[in-house]
Amino acid sequence: MQKNIVLLYSLFCCITAFSQQEESDSLLTLDEVTIRAFEQNRKASLTASTVKIIDRNVADMHNKTSFVHAFNTITGVRMEERSPGSYRLNIRGSSLRSPFGVRNTKVYWNDLPFTDPGGNTYFNQFAYNNFSSIEIFKGPAGSMYGAGTGGLILINNLDRWHPGATVEYNTGSYNLHTIFGSARFGSGQNKNQFTYAHNQSDGYRIQTKMRRDNFSWISQLKLSNKQQLTASVLFSDMYYQTPGALTLAEFIANPKAARPAGGGFPSAIDAKAGIYQKNITAGFTNVYAINSSFKNSTTLYGAFTQIKNPAIRNYERRNEPSLGGRTIFRFIKKYGHQKELQFIAGSEFQQGYFNTQVSRNKNGNPDTLQTNDDINYTTYNFFIQGDYNRNNDWIINAGISLNKTKVDFIRLSSYPTSKQSRSYQNELAPKISMRKKITADFSLKATLSRGFSPPTIAELLPSTGLISTELDAEYGWNYELTASYYLLKNRLHIEATAFYFKLNKALVQRRDVSGADFFVNAGDVKQKGIELYTNYLLIKNTISFIDHLNIKASYSRNHFRYGTFIKGVDNFSGKTVPSVPASTFSAVADLQFKNGFYFNLTWYSASRIFLNDANTATADAYHLLGTKIGWTRSLQKKYKLDFFAGADNLLDETYSLGNDINAAANRFYNAAPKRNYYAGVSFQWTRVPKK
Q: Is residue 181 part of a domain?
């Protein structure tokens, strides 16, 4: 990764050289978004906790059929996709316990808890028109958001609302077809938004077809000067095939292949391996201002997920209804124009009533029943937080939560029925963050937090079918320091973060000979790293045909090692933690011309990745280059047309994305698409308010 460091340094030198020629100011500035995480409600440059943003501008630079490219622009964050629709998210190593899906990361959508009570997040049901911005906090967030050591994601959908409608169509390689549609109507007193998205593709590999239909409705009604009600509904219906992982020899011979038959198990094609998934989440948030200083925000929601999963070794069916709520009391007191004190107190409750049935898989259909389990999963927490701001010079944010989790399993397929239970209770999760302004342009941030994460349902009841209530919760302390510097009239932002996270009893994924996953507690994991970020906005008013150039670059260097980790006769102490590259680099350049043409260039690279605890298998480093060009034109101030085309993996790399970690029979590799192309058109109508 030394080449990446040189590239980052060269990029910095180039943009600094450009900046010396800048002659005039512009209304465009960096980091003006408002951060809502931890109830900070301030501009990003004035928060005590370091929070990163993915906005629609970043999303529009990529092929919008997948979230992978947008998430991988954030330093310390890595998203993978084993096959179209099968996401895995890594925030500073949190994919260690995720063979697939998003676990150990708390996700909220329009204030609704989107992570289910069992700890799983079906991130694949989202489409690009389900958000206007995404906030990402790296590290334990349990002081306000419950159990979890992997981070926090807040997805917002109404913070840039305006009346109008948008329709977009994309097509591309592998028979890609995507449709986005949205309608926004109402006023500032009653905002409404409907969205629809359809996505389908044959996929790069054999057995990777996917289809997803997504619908959302959001309505925000201002009932009075004191009260506001927001209702949200998200429904998705999707199907995607799962090709299975390959050995290195199979991957080299034909990376497009699906897993062949072997070991007494059918091939992925014969098993008709895939996921049939339906999700619905609905809820509302009521905000009531009791007086000028005191207000309450209460959220109630319900959700239901249905999963059918014909796999190589079995056929799994899951029904997962859940409900929950969250309430926050907020008190704000201002002292003159220089001091502000805020107190937060609240709680969150989630309850899941799940049923999981596992049968033999006979040619893609359920056959003989093997296990049938009812699962009740209850989690709740109470939290308090204080926030002090002295003239934006000192900002201190401190909170603590008390968490309890209880799970009951009743195995209905064996008689007499048996019940197994496990409680994880009275766990404290404190966090303190502070920001100190050293000069007008230079500040330091520090965070100390404790994370606590009990096993998810998928870990307590993995695909082996054995209930694992003996698993312990993982926990640890995170230490973090961030230096932030703004230069050149806020055109250039440089940020450096160093962190150390000592994780005890870390949950680690393993796979048996059949490919079924199971989990064990490691002794401890020591996660150290450095993250660098630069963002530069160049306005060249002296060149008539250029509107602006925005360059962002991110680099992370990780040193993740097992401490004491002995399982049976195997001693993995001191080994590199698998699934996490030692370094990653991302760069995005956005060039906008005044005549409506635009050009985007993206780069992402990752170093080699160890694939097992013994560090005997690796996935090679890879480098991805992408580009997008387009032309946009506004007509009569209320209509906007956009024509675009792009390409991903221009270097035509053969690489594995979403590797199977600690896989038996050395089946680690899931090939990602080679060079591919896309093109599309969008039409936007914005209602111009009457004067």
A: yes
Give the domain range for residue 6.
2-686
Distance CA 285, CA 149 (A): 26
Alpha-carbon Rg for the chain, nearest whole angstrom, is: 25
Q: How confident is the model at residue 17 (pLDDT cuts 50, 70, 90)?
A: very low
Q: Which two tokens stand for residue 100?
A: 């697939």
Residue 691 lies in a domain: no
d(CA 577, CA 200): 35
Summarize the chain as % helix, strand, coil (round to 5): 10, 55, 35
The pLDDT value recorded for residue 509 is 77
Residue 532, C-beta contacts closer than 8 angstroms, at least 6 positions apart: 8, 75, 494, 495, 496, 497, 553, 554, 555, 556
Range 392-396, long-range pairs (CB < 8 A, 24+ positions): 392/46, 392/437, 393/436, 393/437, 394/434, 394/435, 394/436, 394/437, 395/46, 395/47, 395/48, 395/434, 395/435, 396/48, 396/432, 396/433, 396/434, 396/435
Question: pTM of whole model > 0.90?
Answer: yes
Residues 207, 240: contact at Cβ < 8 Å?
A: no
Task: For residue 20, tell me if it sits in a domain.
Answer: yes
Q: What CATH number does residue 39 fall under?
A: 2.40.170.20
pLDDT of residue 690: 61
If phi > 0 it is left, if psi is from -120 to 50 it is alpha, else beta; for residue 441 that is alpha
pLDDT score recorded for residue 24: 36
* Whether residue 462 has a cis bond before it, omega within 30° of 0: no
pLDDT digits (tens, 9 = 90+) for 94-120: 666 766 678 889 999 999 999 999 989
Mean pLDDT calculated for residue range 371-378: 95
Contacts of 27 (CB under 8 A, 6+ apart): none
**What is the structure's pLDDT at 162?**
85
Query: How many structural domains are present in the chain?
Result: 1
pLDDT at 21: 40
More confident residue, 82 or 234: 234
Percent of residues, the chain, with pLDDT higher than 90:
70
Tell me if 399 is assigned to some domain: yes
Cα–Cα–Cα angle for 482, 485, 491, nearest 5°?
A: 135
Look-up of token digits 């008013």: 541
For residue 149, give Cα distances in angstroms to 53, 93, 497, 658, 660.
20, 10, 18, 21, 22
3-state secondary structure of 110: coil
Round to whole Å and give the CA distance between 672 and 113: 31
Please give the Cα distance from 475 to 142 (Å, whole number): 11
